[in-house]
Amino acid sequence: MIMTHTSSRDRVLKLCATALLAALVALSAKLQIQIPAILGVERFHLGNAFCALSGILLGPWWGGLASGIGSIVFDLTDPMYVAESPITFVTKGLYGVIAGLVFHKLCKGKSNYRSELAATLCAAAGYIVLYLAKNYFYNGLLLSGLDGMTAWAAVVQKAPSSLFNAAVAVLIAPALGVAIRRALRAARLDGMLA
């Protein structure tokens, strides 16, 4: 197969965009605000918004890779999360994959707020299920050796945090996605997009 100059350029742009979004995922997860536990929210961050944005802009596979790599980089920089980093790679990677699949397959890649909102909502819902299941099975039953009811109680305490960060992602990712797509098209950098 002969590669044209345009396809080589587009691949390099896609790779650069993936690396950039992975860095943004890691940085946005690192920049966090601790919220008092009485609200049931542990920390607020923009990492989930950039995971969804990765899938919307890059498609399911490159977007999943960007969100997974960025999230594992965050985990590896915090001793509290290092042990869970492989699980995070998968769950956060799926955040980008789901957003990308919904946006590019179901919504046909039509860049408008409604399509990007649908992709972000589906990705956020999928991630919440995965995250809470991980907390029940891995953190609760396997690591802590809790019984089923106690592990479930621990999951219920984590739910508000997940819902809060999902709501932030739903507010931010679609608006950023529409704006970034418009800017990249105007700059003739469409090769970065899926």
Describe this structure in words.
By secondary structure, the chain is an all-alpha fold. The chain is built from 6 helices and 2 strands. The chain has helices spanning 5-30, 47-58, 60-76, 85-106, 113-143, 148-186, and strands spanning 33-34, 43-44. It has a two-stranded antiparallel sheet. A hairpin with an 8-residue loop joins strand 1 (33-34) and strand 2. The protein starts with a helix and ends in an 8-residue tail after the last helix.
Provide a short characterization of the protein structure.
By secondary structure, this protein is mainly alpha-helical.
Helix segment count? Answer: 6
Question: If strands are numbered along the chain, what order do they take across the biggest sheet?
Answer: 1-2
| Poorly predicted parts | none
Strand content: under 5%
